[in-house]
């Protein structure tokens, strides 16, 4: 789907009712106007944001007159984007007074969730600032990068801020697409790196399953949701093609490493200690151990076909990702050159 082809998509899995103030006729009218408005990525400097900007830039290259804006706290770092004709703008979710100006002239906005996970409510406030600024600027549609939401009773700190942000979007009156992304496959590099050394996959995830997804696939999904012109409200689960438990990961790693890999189940405290002895800072070690313990509830087992329907692509499987990063995984196990 080219970014200039802003037609209304028939794809509306788990489509939500429009806000009472948003009549269908009004959405069709504003959808036509988005052809003359910018498509913007807020949080453009991050790993996901950069991937989305670069993909959209390649689409824009064949469509003169299409405006792509990249909103970031560090516009001075992106001279290369500016040279490509991308409108690089300053914007900071912690400074709401300037956000409406950053979103001026934007029709469709990608709101990438911030990485503040501290339980203080700061991330919710950041997202609220962005949504309110988008409303003030007249943004027609917001695409928000959320997180897989498990059934009730399996909530965590990782989910709560996203639940709150989804509620803010529902109350905003702005049409929106919510992309509930699974855990990135990148996390497996830290989990399996030690297994390459000693043949032991240590984990606190018990019998839990996870549908790990490639970060690049999440970028493809975000770019597609921005470009398809959909004008209603929808929720999409962006997952990998399979849900894997620890034994399945160990089997994949064994084939990749060419040696047996044993699953070693640990409690959360022991897992945190292992992360720390591997050189990880204690706060991060405790957080990751806690996440693994939460995964033992099977909260992240969801597998969805939404990615394929949205993008027309097949989601990348875990073995392909690990094979592409084989040298990085094996580096600790290789003798010095």
Automatic annotation (TrEMBL):
InterPro entries: NAD(P)-bd_dom, NAD(P)-bd_dom_sf, NmrA-type_oxidoreductase. SUPFAM superfamilies: NAD(P)-binding Rossmann-fold domains (SSF51735). It comes from the Bacteria. Coiled coil: none annotated. Gene3D superfamilies: NAD(P)-binding Rossmann-like Domain, UDP-galactose 4-epimerase, domain 1. Residues 43-228 form the NAD(P)-binding domain. Pfam families: NAD_binding_10. PANTHER family: NMRA-LIKE DOMAIN-CONTAINING PROTEIN, QUINONE OXIDOREDUCTASE 2. This is NAD(P)H-binding protein.
């Amino acid at each position: 789907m080219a970014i200039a082809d802003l037609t209304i998509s028939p794809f509306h899995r788990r489509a939500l009712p429009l806000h009472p103030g948003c009549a269908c006729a009004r959405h069709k009218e504003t959808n036509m106007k988005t052809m003359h408005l910018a498509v913007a990525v807020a949080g453009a400097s991050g790993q996901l944001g950069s991937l989305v900007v670069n993909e959209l830039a390649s689409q824009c290259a064949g469509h003169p007159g299409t405006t792509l804006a990249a909103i970031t706290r560090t516009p001075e770092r992106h001279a290369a984007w500016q040279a490509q004709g991308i409108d690089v703008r300053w914007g900071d979710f912690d400074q709401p007074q300037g956000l409406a100006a950053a979103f001026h002239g934007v029709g469709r906005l990608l709101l990438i969730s911030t990485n503040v996970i501290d339980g203080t409510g700061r991330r919710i406030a950041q997202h609220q600032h962005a949504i309110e600024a988008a409303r003030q600027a007249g943004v027609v549609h917001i695409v928000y990068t959320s997180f897989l939401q498990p059934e009730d009773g399996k909530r965590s700190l990782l989910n709560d801020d996203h639940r709150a942000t989804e509620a803010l979007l529902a109350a905003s009156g702005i049409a929106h697409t919510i992309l509930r992304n699974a855990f990135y496959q990148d996390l497996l590099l830290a989990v399996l790196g030690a297994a390459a050394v000693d043949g032991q996959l240590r984990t606190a995830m018990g019998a839990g399953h996870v549908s790990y997804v490639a970060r690049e696939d999440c970028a493809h999904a975000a770019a597609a949701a921005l470009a398809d012109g959909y004008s209603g409200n929808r929720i999409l689960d962006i997952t990998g093609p399979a849900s894997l438990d620890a034994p399945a990961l160990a089997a994949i790693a064994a084939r990749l490493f060419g040696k047996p890999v044993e699953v070693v189940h640990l409690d959360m405290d022991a897992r945190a200690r292992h992360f720390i002895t591997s050189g990880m800072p204690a706060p991060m070690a405790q957080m990751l151990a806690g996440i693994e313990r939460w995964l033992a509830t099977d909260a992240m087992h969801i597998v969805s076909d939404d990615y394929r329907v949205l993008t027309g692509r097949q989601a990348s499987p875990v073995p392909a990702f690990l094979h592409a990063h084989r040298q990085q995984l094996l580096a600790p196990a290789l003798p010095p050159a």
